[in-house]
Design goal:
about 220 residues, alpha/beta, Rossmann fold, DNA polymerase, domain 1, 2 domains, six-stranded parallel β-sheet, 8 helices, about 40% helix
């Protein structure tokens, strides 16, 4: 029986790609680097913002110094613009609301940096009571390392076999595998279905409402 549902953020509960693309392109432009179409960012995100910047930089410019420069330009701009175009995917709020009504514990586990993860969760889902909301923290390895899931399991006092992890990418599916929890891939996010299938998740769904049947 599922008692806890853990959701990835970007590409799973929130479509954040336009604001991430705009903010990264702003930072690139400020530092004299070429920009990218928003669609390209679907494959840049997923492993934290430093990896995002590394992928966005020209191949010969992916140094720690340049990544830091982009980060310094990105953070204040994204803070001001992270809700310009971002929105929950259709059906997500109803899904979370129904799970909450059923008594399923809810959590967010993201590779987005922690402050932004908490801010966006509070902004878009104020009526939902999450038992834990965790983004990438400096002292904790990012997904697919299972540390973030283990921290949520501890906070929720729930066992692995009672936990459903929902995400849109191979990183998420590998996180679920590494954590020993039940895995569910979603096809409405940033990555193609084939990427999810490569990890053989327990479930793949194409609409949020389908997740209700899994709990």
């Amino acid at each position: 029986m599922i008692k806890l549902a853990i959701f990835d953020m970007d590409g799973t509960i929130l479509n954040t790609i336009a604001d991430l693309a705009d903010s990264t392109n702003y930072a690139l432009c400020q530092n004299g680097f070429p920009v990218h179409p928003a669609e390209a960012y679907r494959f840049f995100v997923g492993n934290g913002i430093n990896k995002l910047f590394e992928r966005a930089l020209p191949e010969g410019e992916r140094t720690e110094a340049n990544i830091l420069r982009i980060r310094q330009s990105f953070l204040p701009y994204y803070k001001e613009h992270d809700t310009d175009h971002t929105a929950p995917y259709p059906g997500i709020f109803d899904l979370l609301w129904q799970l909450q009504k059923w008594g399923i514990l809810l959590a967010v586990a993201s590779n987005k940096y922690h402050v932004a993860t908490c801010k966006l969760t509070d902004f878009y889902f104020p009526e939902i009571s999450f038992v834990s909301v965790l983004g990438q923290r400096e002292d904790v390895a990012p997904k697919p390392d299972p540390a973030i899931v283990y921290d949520i399991l501890l906070a929720a006092a729930v066992q692995k076999e009672e936990t459903l992890y929902i995400g849109d990418s191979g990183v998420d599916m590998q996180t679920a595998i590494n954590s020993g929890v039940v895995s569910c891939g979603v096809t409405w996010g940033f990555r193609p279905r084939a990427e999810l299938e490569a990890f053989h998740p327990d479930y793949i769904v194409s609409k949020p409402v389908e997740i209700l049947a899994l709990v």
